[in-house]
């Protein structure tokens, strides 16, 4: 199986923050952002593996700022590291104020997705070739994150 | 402000896994589970603080097993530690097979919620008094998790 | 088939009243409450019978008070009487004002659910053993409600 | 305030039964039907009163048959009796098999809706003039149903 | 195959404009109206053909006025012309102001639906007999619209 | 007001075709595609004008092929011509088969969006500078499409 460029899995999603996605104060629910993050990560991992995928874990997520009704959310994702049957997907979420056009980093997140064959068994995925310095750095630190996930699981 | 028993914020949510919540293989989306987790954490923190709340962060989440169409999901949440304006909420998700009644731990998760006053400014919350050994342990390790979140943010 | 304690089917659901669930005046739609009631009744009857269930009827429902955006809804359900293939489920809905924590009874409701086997045929269910005085009273008056439903159907 | 013909409030809604509205066996959820019933009753009462309305109660509902994925649901509603600020709305639901075109009565239901002014206070509504024998009969038996609702409320 | 009266496919849908269907200014999304139009056109074509149908094209749609939160939308549809396996459905959308009862034409639209058999292959449909002058005119101009669609496709 | 490059409004949205978006045969509803098209067109026009926008019209849409459950939909949009207060947005929709990665053009569509100020009045928008040959061609033919829309409106 030949390794694929991270461009293969690069995925962009743009969404409007609408009233039903927000609380009393017009602030978007964390859960809405998380479900957008999970959806784009699944699409990105599906493009890389050409298989159905399931979410195995999601790393610490900090909501650095919070989007409000009327903002434009832009999500960008690509696969940054791979195991035998798993893929780590890096997702960046920015919110954009309609009037000023100012973009603010809302959150970054790393999810691990597992590819499944038709019987629902984990199945092999190609490796990934990073295309940016940020992706290269994330590939190098993949082992460290795996370690942290195992520790959290054992707790 | 007097500290409150964790019983005050204890919240239970039961949900059916329905076809629109699942992928081709009838497996629930990680994002759906995450949005249920965020909703129960918000309710739990609202009961503790009697304020509107927003999600500040979510800790590493491992999906230990995955629920399928027809399963019953049970989520349980309570506040386990507090800062001046923030609350850590511990959420446990179990899935239950309809026929056998077997319950499986699907995931555990810790979210940090911040209480907001009417102008959207962070506002003070009461402390929490743990009621189980598990909650006591989580109160003791709160500082450690805070440290980890800061590290992740700085990366 | 051995009768089961009503604890087996006891189910709790907590929900936030969100903007899309409400009309112009921020008051929750009756239909939203009814669909939450039907969902918890189905889960409760599924826990009792370990079968797929369908709703056969719903008794007179009075909306005693109406929840508004930002309220916390708590639903509690359990099986209170059984026929050969049917179960009566009692559902209580309370709404809780966020700021004051005051809980108000929004409605009580009784639904009849029928258990179905894999071919969609009605299938036998265990009896129920009430655990509270309220449940005991509801078991005693089950025959009376059945009578009323038949009358309504014949009209 | 002049009484209005029941034609003023006559409302028709046609819906497709789609996969997300159904359980494992492709049978529509009772709660979905109930929420369609509540929506059409609200529209019907709004047409009659020209006010925002809320649901006060719903009478015993029997699900005489159950619609499946791909069926066409037809709901028909009109106001059949009125109090000073309340309206009784009669709703008939039929499901239609796509291939054969056979229509089956799924349920009939009577809801009480209350008109509200801009401050959320109950406000006066016009009387109703029945246009069919069925509506005439329902107008005559309105008092009886009111009696039954009060009894149920007191229980 | 005998031609059918346009009454066979006549379909009415009434909907409330709710907060989640609208943007910041309380104006309904074009996309929401379009998805209501597609749904009623599908039901209308299903009633005419007694088959599952898919949308093949939608003609130029002008939004003549825009509905706001609290308006009642009324959609009316019927088949106005047919090909061997396709049906043209004419849809009229009116919005009604709650307080005044004034109805405004929001849009008119013509969609082409294709009937499919169980293997997903296009399948023959009956002809249509118009019942109003408007429908007669639309039947006469069907060929012209077909021409325009082909031109647009070739561009 | 200085004209803007079409890059300013270029918007990409990627979506998974999920079971609730599809009919009995697993084929996506035309209405679902249309509502995705309307959403991306709104975002694109908002980026160009930095104003809230409403849909004024949508041109003839041909569904050239139809996406099925599990496909990845990719929508791409940008402003291609402008009036004083209106913007024409060109939207291309492709569906991608998961296993083979084959992309098929599902539809192309042109929508006219109008910018609104805070009082809901139409407000001026910048011109647009095309960046591709396709966009240049669409800018040249804008007048022709306007003519066609007026004709359709007058019919």
From TrEMBL, chains A, B, C, D, E, F:
Has the keyword Hydrolase been applied to this entry?
Answer: yes
Indicate the segments forming the HotDog ACOT-type domain, all copies: 7-119
* InterPro entries assigned to the protein according to its UniProt record, in alphabetical order: Cytosol_ACT, HOTDOG_ACOT, HotDog_dom_sf, Thioestr_dom
The protein, known as:
Acyl-CoA thioesterase
Give the organism, scientific name.
Rossellomorea vietnamensis
**Annotated PANTHER family:** ACYL COENZYME A THIOESTER HYDROLASE (PTHR11049), CYTOSOLIC ACYL COENZYME A THIOESTER HYDROLASE (PTHR11049:SF24)
Q: Which GO terms describe its molecular function?
A: long-chain fatty acyl-CoA hydrolase activity
The family assignment reads:
Belongs to the acyl coenzyme A hydrolase family.
Pfam families tied to this protein: 4HBT
Q: Name one GO cellular component term.
A: cytosol
Q: Which UniProt keywords apply?
A: Hydrolase
Gene Ontology biological-process entries: acyl-CoA metabolic process; fatty acid catabolic process
């Amino acid at each position: 199986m030949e390794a694929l460029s991270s461009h293969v899995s690069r995925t962009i999603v743009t969404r409007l923050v609408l009233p039903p996605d927000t609380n009393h104060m017009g602030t978007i629910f964390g859960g809405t952002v998380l479900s957008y993050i999970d959806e784009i990560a699944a699409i990105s991992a599906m493009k890389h593996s050409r298989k159905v995928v399931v979410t195995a874990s999601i790393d610490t997520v900090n909501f650095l700022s919070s989007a409000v009704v009327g903002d434009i959310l832009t999500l960008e994702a690509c696969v940054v590291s791979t195991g035998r049957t798993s893929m780590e997907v890096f997702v960046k979420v920015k919110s954009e104020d309609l009037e000023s056009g100012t973009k603010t980093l809302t959150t970054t997140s790393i999810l691990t997705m597992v590819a499944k064959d038709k019987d629902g068994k984990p199945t092999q995925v190609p490796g990934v070739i990073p295309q940016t310095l940020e992706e290269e750095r994330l590939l190098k630190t993949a082992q460290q994150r795996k370690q942290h996930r195992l520790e959290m699981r054992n707790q």
